[in-house]
Prior knowledge:
Layout: E1 25-28, H1 31-35, E2 43-44, H2 45-49, E3 54-58, E4 65-69, E5 72-76, E6 82-84, E7 90-91, E8 94-97, E9 103-110, H3 113-121, E10 130-146, H4 157-164, E11 166-182, E12 193-200, E13 206-224, E14 227-230, H5 235-239, H6 247-254
Helix pairs in contact: 4-6
Amino acid sequence: ANEVPKKVAPSTTIAPSKEVKSDKLFQYSTINALMSGQYDGDITLDEVKKFGDFGLGTLNGADGELTILDSKFYRFDNKGKMTQVPGASKTPFVVATNFNKDKTAYISSVKNTEDLTTKLLAQMDNKNNFYAFKMPVTLKYLKTRSEPKQEKPYRLLKDVLTEEQVEFEYKNVKGTFVGFYTPNYAATINVPGFHFHFVSDDKTLGGHILNLAFDEAIVQIDSISEFEVQLPQTKEFAEADLTKIQLQDILDVEGDTK
Length: 258
Ligand SMILES: C[C@@H](O)[C@](C)(O)C(=O)O
Ligand SMILES: [Zn+2]
């Protein structure tokens, strides 16, 4: 009863920190799993939407090229058709973020994707961060690819794309470039280096960019210091050997065909 009352620090209310949308990169599954033929995911695009309004990937069965822009899901198929897909659609591999630009940069006289990556790298302060790039642009030249829905037993993505990818070439297309950069240390998790998709403003074309050219554009750059990988909880994923994929195989399928 006569114990000395504990000294209580004067209560200080900490001003609630400004609510900052978590600047995180979310991905479902890994590029090694996709390359190994893991084409059936157990996540819907509506669930992905919780993690980002901006992104890219594919749909179950590797059924075309997926691009997420302003929280809408666009599928560009092997017939060159672009459609919006319902949120109940599932994906085996997707990368998404709530895009918030840290800076913008004026990029000009881009002759091809190699030239673009050099110009983007020059704008990146930390090559060990992830990055997202959003760029409204009129492309003088655009070469994209897509691929048909696969049937089981699934083949390696390398074989699917080598044998079945369909390439499309366009001139003077206005749209939005959706891009990501993954540091090489994460090369088994996501596409190492740059990965670009596209959605035309009239929503008629896009897909996985193999090559491009444009005179000038302002690119929005989002430097990302946190990434989250949600792993498929499917039997196939649990039993898959994901160590066989070679880095060169990923680079071969992501880059332009000769
Ligand atoms: C479906 C694939 O072509 C994907 C995910 O777009 C990629 O790996 O580039
Ligand atoms: Zn792609």
